[in-house]
Amino acid sequence: MDVIKSMQVFKQVAQSKSFTGAADKLNIVPSAVSRQINELEHWLGRRLIHRTTRSLHLTRDGKEYLLRMEEILNHIDYLKADSHATGQLTGRVKITTPVMVGQQDISKVIGRFKAEHPKVDIVLRLDNRSVNIVEEGYDIAIRSGVLTDSNLYAKKVSEISFKTVVSRDYFSHNPAINSPFDLNEHNCIVNTALSTSKRWNFMIGGGIKAVKIDGTLESNDAFCILEFAKYGNGVAQLPAQYVQQGIQKGELIEILSEHALAPTPISLIYPSNRLLSRTTKALIDAIVKYYETI
Q: Is this prediction's pTM over 0.85?
């Protein structure tokens, strides 16, 4: 039995959540995946996966062993990469970022990085949800807000601020918005990609308060919301990077600026207990350098 190979198969099954999906990723037949898992479970003396005809999920032992196996496999990848330190960068890096950050920033970094290091495999996932980077096998994540998980290392690379805007036409033909609470009387464009889609935060009376909003237009994409606002369809609250050009061109007007929140940090994070491969380190350095120059 090749223990390392079986660990790699188990890790892929956990990520794919199916034997067939893992087989496709590993370019082997499903029966080979099943055999590797059975051998690994027999070798460990533990049931790692609970299987039914319709679903597959890790047992408690499976979840615990997955974390340990990932550490072992990461150490092996690190040693392999380090042994070829004078050669080209190789290996695989999996990274997750919020949609906006991935579209505007990280896609540029990865495009340049991949062109310089063609033997590196990179998986980029854009996702606004809170991702468990350890359980889902990510090497790097970009996240906004304050980090609370002590098992992760975080380095602030940038920050994001939000602006509340309307088009000139909407501003001219609708009641004035002098307070966040005036938004109750206005059509607000809802961003369904956010968990707080119908609550916008403002500084009111020296503290942060959530104001309920609603409207007749919803989208999970900030670029769509920006276009809706430009056409006078209502009030939008978007990252400053999205609306700055429209404000400068006179297409949009910022409102309630005196109630805007302080900028939120954007951090690069990775597991603090994981040895980083030379390739992962190089991509981290490229991301940090990018943000230092913009």
A: no
